[in-house]
Recover the amino acids of this structure.
């Protein structure tokens, strides 16, 4: 048995299924590049057959990623599998991940298929996929709630057909660590050909045990692949968190005895990029990547850490990519210094025009903020004026007035396509007035589900504010993110960014319809 643990990242597929986390093709490519810097073994880039947009995203990632294996999900049918193979054509290393549900509940109520039909479909799907790609993963959806006898028959059959990885999903997050570990061990022990495939765990976090279950699947069950997402992003309570699994296996190598190929110094940059792109902020007390994960507030702890770090620290902040808020650039920094800092941060912009736009945003920020940190640079890269996508709604200017005893008002100028809008409104506060002004022209009718503000760099009111706005319209949920030293401007940017997502989804539906 190999002593390497394969890290399979599904941020761009299962993570993206979280309502509001949908990403554009360029955003996905940026995250895929960061995943490659992180040195994950497999990147599940999406579900190619789900829509033309998903196909394009998988195809783009497959043609840019050189080191990691790029994978596409596919239902167990020829059309999905062919689309996946087509989208993956350019990847030096590719994998097709096909799945069908095997629990009684899913087969009867969702698929309306008998056991024998499911068994046959799984077998045929893997046979078909194997002719298109040598690396095939098979998942029995809702596997953990499936009858083990039936599951053994299905898994044995797909290995016979050439599946190279067998993934056992706890689709609804029902498992308990010891039981999940035993479940996988039992399957492996009972199947005569189980050693012909790598076993994989895929856990959801509904009971808060996704990481514990995955680690039990590794330790007790003998799995050698963990499927996980950055920040534990995913539907409902999320997926297994990549950073927690990796740091658990590294920190407790004495117990697990396994190696992971991850460059841990890229963990925090990956976490920030995913949070900023999706608008799903990281809770401060989140293990490894939360703002407080390495902060020692109590006097006793501080005293201990100063005397000897390992009194209270089991990992080093810098090993997972936390850097002290370092002033990196200022308003006198030139284009070359800016370009070099981007390179040091591992950021690759698509074109000279993106670099020019990023530099212009940087100069604008440096005029208003005396100290520019790495976090500020990463945040400005998320700005829609920098990315190559041409957004429909763009903020042009904003003025607002608020005074004790007066009702605040705001005047916002923004572009919608070729048209320029001048909007004014009052509100309960300047943020409310600004968003109402925008809405008075756009008339989206979207419901505001969430509004939150975070400081990009901690410990100072000079920090940029990063605002997340979540909107719901007609059953669709989107997140918009905006950053600026002025939180009213950041709020307007976040609102327009969310409207852009609603707009591009509406365009996508219209194009397909
Ligand atoms: O949770 C699940 O069952 C899945 C499968 C498609 C692998 O995501
Ligand atoms: Zn899943």
């Amino acid at each position: 048995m190999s002593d390497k643990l394969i890290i399979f990242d599904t941020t761009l597929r299962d993570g993206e299924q979280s309502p509001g986390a949908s990403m554009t093709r360029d955003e996905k490519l940026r995250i895929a590049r960061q995943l490659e810097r992180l040195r994950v073994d497999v990147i599940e880039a999406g579900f190619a057959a789900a829509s033309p947009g998903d196909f394009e995203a998988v195809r783009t990632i497959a043609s840019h990623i050189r080191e990691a294996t790029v994978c596409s999900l596919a239902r167990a049918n020829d059309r999905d599998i062919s689309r996946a193979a087509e989208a993956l054509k350019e990847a030096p290393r590719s994998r097709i991940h096909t799945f069908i549900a095997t629990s009684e509940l899913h087969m009867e109520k969702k698929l309306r298929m008998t056991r024998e039909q499911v068994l046959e479909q799984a077998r045929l799907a893997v046979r078909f996929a194997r002719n298109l790609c040598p690396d095939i993963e098979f998942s029995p959806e809702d596997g953990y709630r499936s009858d083990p006898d039936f599951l053994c028959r299905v898994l044995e059959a797909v290995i016979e057909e050439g599946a190279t990885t067998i993934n056992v999903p706890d689709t609804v997050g029902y498992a308990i660590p010891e039981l999940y570990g035993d479940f996988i061990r039992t399957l492996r022990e009972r199947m005569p050909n189980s050693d012909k495939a790598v076993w994989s765990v895929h856990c959801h976090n509904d009971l808060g045990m996704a990481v514990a279950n995955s680690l039990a699947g590794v330790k007790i069950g003998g799995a050698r692949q963990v499927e996980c997402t950055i920040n534990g992003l995913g539907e409902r309570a999320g997926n297994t968190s990549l950073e927690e699994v990796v740091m658990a296996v590294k920190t407790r190598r004495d117990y697990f005895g396994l190696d992971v190929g991850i460059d841990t110094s890229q963990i925090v940059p990956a976490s920030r990029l995913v949070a900023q792109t999706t608008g799903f902020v990281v809770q401060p007390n989140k293990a490894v990547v939360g703002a407080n994960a390495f902060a020692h507030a109590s006097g006793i702890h501080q005293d201990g850490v100063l005397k000897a770090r390992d009194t209270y620290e089991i990992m080093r902040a810098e090993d997972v990519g936390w850097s002290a808020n370092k002033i990196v650039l200022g308003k006198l920094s030139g284009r070359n210094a800016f370009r070099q800092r981007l390179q040091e941060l591992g950021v690759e912009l698509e074109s000279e025009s993106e670099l020019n736009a990023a530099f212009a945003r940087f100069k604008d920020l440096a005029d208003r903020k005396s100290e520019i940190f790495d976090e500020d640079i990463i945040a400005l890269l998320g700005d829609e004026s920098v990315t190559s996508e041409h957004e429909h709604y763009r903020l042009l200017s904003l003025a607002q007035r608020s005074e004790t005893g007066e009702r605040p008002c705001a005047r916002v100028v923004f572009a919608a396509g070729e048209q320029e809008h001048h909007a004014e409104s009052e509100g309960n506060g300047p943020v409310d007035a600004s968003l109402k002004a925008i809405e008075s022209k756009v008339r989206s009718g979207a419901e505001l589900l969430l509004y939150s503000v975070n400081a990009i760099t901690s410990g100072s009111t000079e920090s940029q504010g990063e605002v997340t706005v979540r909107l719901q319209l007609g059953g669709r949920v989107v997140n918009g993110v905006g950053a600026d030293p002025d939180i009213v401007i950041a709020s307007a940017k976040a609102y327009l960014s969310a409207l852009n997502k609603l707009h591009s989804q509406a365009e996508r539906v219209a194009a397909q319809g």
Observations:
- The CA atoms of residues 249 and 255 lie 8 Å apart.
- Residues 14, 169, 171, 202, 204 surround zinc ion (ligand 2) (CB under 6 Å).
